[in-house]
Amino acid sequence: MEQFQFEDLIITPRKKGAVKYAKISYPLRFGVFSEIRNSAYTYQFNLNGEIKTIQGRGEGWLDAAEWLKRTVGDDWVYFSAGGYTGAYDYTGEYYVPCLAYESNTVYGNGRFESSEVLNAFAAWEQLQKRLQSLDLTSLQPDAANCIRQIIDKSPAALKDRAERFHRIIGGRVTVLPPDTRHVEYDVIPVNISDGCLYHCGFCRVKSTAGYKVRSETNILSQIEQLNEFFGKDIINCNSVFLGQHDALFAGADIIEWTARKAYEVLRLGSAYMKEPRLFLFGSVDSLLNADNSLFSALNRLPYQTYINIGLETADAQTLSILKKPLNPDKISEAFHQLMAVNHQYANIEITANFVYGADLPETHLPSILGLTRHQLNRSYSKGTIYISPLENSGTKQELLSKFIEFKKLCRLPVYIYLIQRL
Ligand code: SF4
User: Fold this and answer.
1) Distance 247 CA to ligand 1 centre (A)
2) Residue 229 lies in a domain
3) Same domain, 26 and 72
4) What is the CATH number of the domain that holds 336?
């Protein structure tokens, strides 16, 4: 790893970070990247020269362990360390992503209005201008090339790149599965289907279109274009999200075909980042329709697979308020099916979402405990439950104390679902 000093800038063109995502209580950088450091900030760039993270230090920064991260969809996320007591208990992560756009608002209000964050963005723009004014002829070729790439990826160019990325997959990913937290939300999305089965009244991400599976030609074209889009940085990507809202309903053949094609074309087997993962959403009906041959096929894939199912509640009155066209028996059947799959298949974890709202009936939370406590004979480590706050969740304090009360009784891991887009 060679380092170059240029006035006050320390430039490392190709720095090697961790090869696996890990949950640890200090900031860890993953993959291969370029880095520019000065006395106030450390800037991290991917292998295409796109800004990836900004981390400040000293008096002008909020917390030495916290950082800003840019997503492939050109959003900035602020990773917060410990401003919230017991962040790990609430989210399963030591660092909580705070978002710059409207989402469920349990965490991170106001981060993007703070002078520290605004100054960090201003400093990044100044760095761009500074790099443009440098005489690169005196620099080593590696450092000069690295800087040229970074100059090319101006904020306007990054916005264009994100638009291209969204065009390839046919629009924004409106919501990522909660399990993508295991890879810090760094996934390559490949849409294998559009729409969903239920069009529930409460849902903010549903599309109006009916459910449709995409053709192999369309899917392959997405994968090939994504391979070209990620370019040199593809070695840092090892996880795939099969979109959109109910990829599980697309069936075993197309799921397996897409997962294997993505693995081959995106060369995930030789990526710098190890332990590839596959993420998808499913629904109650797609889970109940799936048979052992589908799960056996998923279990054989060269990925650890996470399927997230929206169960929402096991209470009839709440289902009717949510306008979800299902009944408690079916929810219960789906819950037991997911527990059985988790037990049987080592490489698959099916997780479930339940909603939380301040004005939902008193019978709602007990209905979830009916499944996750009273119908389980012991605690299990697989089958994570995500609690998804609705628009009216009461005060943050009320929500968090209800959550802790629930968590103590539940026999499965429980975390809050933070809705994040790409
Ligand atoms: S909760 Fe799921 S099934 Fe219901 S409308 Fe939203 S995306 Fe569709």
Assistant:
1) 12
2) yes
3) yes
4) 3.20.20.70
Ligand 1 pocket, 282 CB below 6 A? Answer: no
Q: For the chain, how many structural domains are there in total? A: 2
Q: Are residues 140 and 204 in the same domain?
A: no
Q: Are residues 119 and 264 in the same domain?
A: no
Q: Is the CB of 206 under 6 A from ligand 1?
A: yes
Do 231 and 340 lie in one domain? The reply is yes
Residues 252, 328 within the same domain:
yes
Give the per-residue pLDDT at 268: 97
Write the pLDDT tens digit of every residue in 44-77. 999 999 999 999 998 889 888 899 999 999 999 9
b/e sequence 62-78, b meaning 16+ C-beta within 10 Å: beebbbbbbbbbbbbbb
In the reported structure, the alpha carbon of residue 16 is separated from the centroid of ligand 1 by a whole-number distance in angstroms of 40
CA 160 to chain CA centroid, Å, is 22
Asked whether 107 lines ligand 1 (CB < 6 A), one says no
- Same domain? 203 vs 236: yes
| Ligand 1 neighbourhood includes 283 CB (under 6 angstroms) | yes
Domain that holds residue 351: 170-416
| 198 Cβ below 6 A of ligand 1 | yes
**Which residue owns the Cα nearest ligand 1 atom 4?**
200
Model confidence at 138, pLDDT cuts 50, 70, 90, reads: confident
Whether 192 and 282 share a structural domain = yes
Cα(86)–Cα(105) distance, rounded to whole angstroms?
17
- The answer to whether 392 touches 359, Cβ cutoff 8 Å, is yes
CA of 329 to the centre of ligand 1 (A): 19
Which residue out of 208, 245, 353 has the highest number of ligand 1 atoms within 8 Å of its CB and is therefore the one to mutate?
A: 245
Kindly state whether residues 25 and 147 are assigned to the same domain.
yes
Q: What string of DSSP letters covers 227-296?
A: HHHHGGGGGG--EEEEESTTGGGG-HHHHHHHHHHHHHHTTGGG-SS-S-EEEEEE-HHHHHH--HHHHH
Q: For position 2, what pLDDT does the model report?
A: 85
Domain boundary among 101, 125, 155: 155
- Among 206, 246, 355, the mutation site with the greatest number of ligand 1 atoms within 8 A of its Cβ is 206
Q: Which of 155, 189, 224 is the last residue of a domain?
A: 155
Q: Which atom of ligand 1 is nearest to the CA of 203?
A: 6
pLDDT digits (tens, 9 = 90+) for 100-127: 887 766 666 678 989 999 999 999 999 9
pTM reported for the whole predicted model: 0.96
